[in-house]
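Q&A log
Question type: sequence-to-structure
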Amino acid sequence: MQLCVIGAGVIGLTTALELQQEYGNATVTIVADRFEQDTCSDVAAGLFRPGTSFCGPSEDITRKWISDAYRYWDDIRKTEDASNAGVTQLSGYIFSSTDPAIVRNHYIEKVLPLYRAATEQELTLCPGDWKYGSFFTTVLTECRLFQPWATKRFLRRGGRIVTECLESFQRLYGKFDAVVNCSGLGAKKLCNDYKLVPIRGQVIKVKAPWVKTAFYADYDTYIIPGFQGVTLGGCRNFDSYNTNLCRHDTAAIRERCEALLPSLKGAPVIREAVGLRPHRDPVRVEPEWMEFAGGKLKVVHNYGHGGYGVTTAPGTAIYATRLVTEVLKSNSKL
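Response status: OK
Response body:
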């Protein structure tokens, strides 16, 4: 059996690994034009904290994606490969001075091992008039480590990688039994999908090894320690295609993060990065049979995760793999 995955970001890689797990005798091929540090996934801090706006086709399916994803990351965390894969456990706080709903998350309160209200004393840990807060323990996946690790694992299992900027599904027709489309923002053109919108994000990675705890605050402010530095963020520019660094965003991010955690003042910059999050409401994980002269191509779409791709990738990969099983068994038009 010949299976294909379009895209080599965290969504594509976890999907390709899941297909190999499910179909041990199949040859899985990844077709992509960008890899590892050139992907949007590389910019992400990778903390498992899906936003309350994250949305699949139904709440039950969305919750299943999230719980499956957490279990996947946490299982890696418990292995000897965890440090090489860039997966670790991390605790953090969410503070708000405006609304108690900001510090609550109905998706993960019962999934994570710990999610509770912050104490009055904890609300004073950071400067600011914090009225509401939560403390939680979760996992973090640093894609700068995970993507090379996952790629090596994929290749060891007999996977193939083809470097190509795919402009049409027709190029794949007749070559594969099924295709999983994990092309992210590329699906806007590939699928003519006008629901797919880029949400621009910019982050600063600084050297601050004394920071061991994550902090979130109002106005999209976050401080997330990782394996290779601390991520400071952020911004969410809806429908922006600008991949250039913006000095105004840099200044605003540093000002907000240093106000939240003053010890960050003077922390040396490792790098700055911009990523375009592929946002779609709902996230598209569904089958489609594409008709071409002479027959049909069985496709399962898996894209549109927005800023929660690293968080939810394994959950949608598992779901997409089940859909592949269904389309392979079916001979009727879905």
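Response note: The chain has seven helices and 14 strands.
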